[in-house]
Write a structure and sequence with these properties.
three-stranded antiparallel beta sheet, globular, 3 strands, 15 helices, mainly alpha
Length: about 300
């Protein structure tokens, strides 16, 4: 695996062009609007994990209309969160968001906490999400390292095409070194680098002609050397247990009454894989088995 190296470009020279580009080109997304609040930011961060914006937008709008505050979601059954999650994928995120809403209601009077440590203590909240909410919702200074930001830093500062598969200590150190000193500017930088990776410095088709820091990019200046690290993980879906789980959940989401085993058996022909997928859904708390071979989304 190619090691991340420290940047030779003065961080301050990157801040102004990247933030300036963001001010002109940032997408108008509902969770970026003031009325979204910290809860809207948190919901978006859960939904956007491994899921593109265009798929998230309609589900986000429906979610926020139904549950505009954490207490609204906490008062509903966790199965309703799974139902409303629709086909976003990785539905355990819905249960984790429901659990976070319950904790926010119980521990923080229904308001998403602003302190990074309190955010990190919520169920289902990891380092990335805590930093993102603290930064985007409360304008704090944190290194926010999602896939897009990591790729921008890998190319612009470290001279490699792709970051390692898992976030490293070297990447975190580099991200902290690149942070502007002032809180509000650091929060803007976090959003700007994320947008740059999403729109310009993409994984497959980087558009250096539109990049505000192309002249300083270590990877471009090195002649864009090909990736030498560990093979990049693919996103295989067809025929996997994930696909089977999705089909089983789709049947349960569409029914308000418990579903008989036969209805689930009809969506996937191979019985061993189907049973394994159903067992996994039960173990993950996404499906509740009932007497008589029936199943439903969880009520508690």
């Amino acid at each position: 695996m190619t090691a991340m190296t420290s940047t030779h470009t003065p961080p301050v020279s990157l801040h102004t062009p990247v933030i300036g580009w963001f001010e002109q080109h940032a997408r108008d997304l509902p969770w970026r609007r003031p009325e979204a609040g910290a809860w809207g930011v948190m919901v978006s961060e859960f939904m956007l994990q491994q899921t593109p914006v265009n798929r998230v937008l309609p589900v986000y709008e429906q979610w926020m209309a139904r549950w505009p505050r954490p207490a609204d979601l906490a008062a509903d059954a966790p199965g309703e969160a799974v139902r409303a999650w629709g086909r976003l994928g990785y539905p355990r995120r819905a249960l984790r968001l429901h659990g976070a809403a319950q904790a926010i209601t119980e521990r923080h009077g229904g308001d998403v906490p602003s302190e990074h440590g309190q955010l990190l203590a919520l169920p289902g909240i990891g380092e990335y999400t805590a930093a993102a909410v603290a930064s985007f919702a409360y304008g704090q200074r944190h290194a926010v390292l999602d896939t897009n930001v990591r790729r921008v830093f890998a190319r612009a500062a470290s001279g490699i095409q792709y970051p390692p598969n898992a976030t490293t200590a070297a990447e975190r150190k580099l991200a902290r070194a690149l942070l502007p000193d002032e809180d509000a500017r650091a929060a803007r930088w976090a959003a700007a680098t994320m947008e740059l990776g999403a729109l310009v410095c993409t994984a497959k088709n980087e558009d250096c002609g539109r990049c505000p820091i192309a002249e300083q990019c270590a990877w471009r200046l090195a002649g864009k050397p090909a990736h030498q690290g560990a093979p990049r993980r693919g996103q295989t879906y067809a025929g996997t247990d994930r696909q089977v789980r999705g089909r089983l959940l789709a049947v349960l989401r569409e029914s308000v009454a418990p579903v008989p085993q036969a209805a689930l058996d009809s969506v996937w022909e191979e019985p061993v894989q189907r049973a394994r997928a159903l067992d996994g859904l039960v173990a993950d708390g996404l499906v509740e088995p009932l007497a008589g071979g029936r199943y439903r989304l969880p009520l508690t």
